[in-house]
């Protein structure tokens, strides 16, 4: 079954070219089926790029998925027009009375700032608290994972030097966990960040489990509160083949001291085309989350979703 997206969303053109099966809103209304309902809080500056990356993976499933995109009202994005947001996005105020099968929060380019100094932090805290009682499962990515771990469990983040940048080899820390069903013993995931959370802090919180990690510098990759169906992912399995190249070229052009992304270019040579090592990981990760932690467990009547809030 396809993912349902808004009529005329620009990501549809990319999905068409890649033969990703989707359904626009008009066609979906004719389907007599209860789709999975996801809320995606997109904190990335160029909304359309992140939309395409996540929709590509969420659409690779036999399940029909309906997405509401949300942005923060307390901060006006600098790289996405208000017209675009008005057509394709809603505010938290517009969705706060809805319930969802799943909630996904992206990363954001604010990781070097203290959490409390982020312009939309108060609104973000309200949304994360809301997600505990209005979404059956939550999936936090990169800075979103750091923010979620800090808000929900008090886990701090730490600056790292140099930047964690490249495609790193990971291994599982748990056995027979459904999120990683079908994964190889070793798998690769892109990372691009200036900060990290650490295993020693996570291990102090009984509710949390380290699910997967890499050797330094990438470190802990996936943390979960399995009782509450909350997942915190430090890397970017959703990245396109050329995303790290774009970041590298941008920073070089700006005169920044940026290293060549690790395990990305053949022979570490930026003149060569990057090798994609994480495509299957990305598809499995999102398909497993949707299937095992959302579709298989969420109640048919969304009004029955309820979790005790602290």
Task: Provide an overview of this structure.
- With 310 residues, the protein is an alpha/beta fold.
- The protein has one domain: Class I glutamine amidotransferase (GATase) domain (Rossmann fold, 3-Layer(aba) Sandwich), CATH 3.40.50.880.
- It has helices spanning 11-17, 25-28, 47-58, 82-88, 92-95, 121-134, 143-153, 199-202, 243-253, 279-295, and strands spanning 3-5, 22-24, 36-41, 65-71, 89-91, 100-105, 135-141, 158-172, 186-196, 209-214, 220-225, 230-233.
- β11 and β12 form a beta hairpin.
- α1 (11-17) packs across α3 (47-58).
Task: Give a quick rundown of the structure.
By secondary structure, the protein is an alpha/beta fold. It has helices spanning 11-17, 25-28, 47-58, 82-88, 92-95, 121-134, 143-153, 199-202, 243-253, 279-295; strands at 3-5, 22-24, 36-41, 65-71, 89-91, 100-105, 135-141, 158-172, 186-196, 209-214, 220-225, 230-233. Mean pLDDT is 91; it is low at 28-32.
